[in-house]
Amino acid sequence: MHKRELLYADFITECSKLAIDALEHTIDRPETLQQAYTLANRIRLTSGDAVLHEAEGVIDQILATYRAPNLPIEKLREISVASFHDPLKAFSEACRLELQSLKEGAPVP
User: Do 105 and 18 contact (CB within 8 A), yes or no?
Assistant: First the structure.
């Protein structure tokens, strides 16, 4: 379970960096996403369907943000925490639920 927690934390750290980078950059090099894909595939090896589904959704959202027009710095300054869409929220919640199930001894779907 500890290894799974570390894996999820690494995915969150990497994808958080990419999500912020995608707001003001386009994807110039495909290898920018290499670590995120590596972590997602490691998640695929050990995690339940809900966590995997959310991890794939995070990457899809990051790719969509990279393809969208860049946000000018003025717009970034205007965004409040409450109005900012966090692409990792659903993933984090799915991880929390899965880890709780594991602690309780329940099987992971």
Answer: no
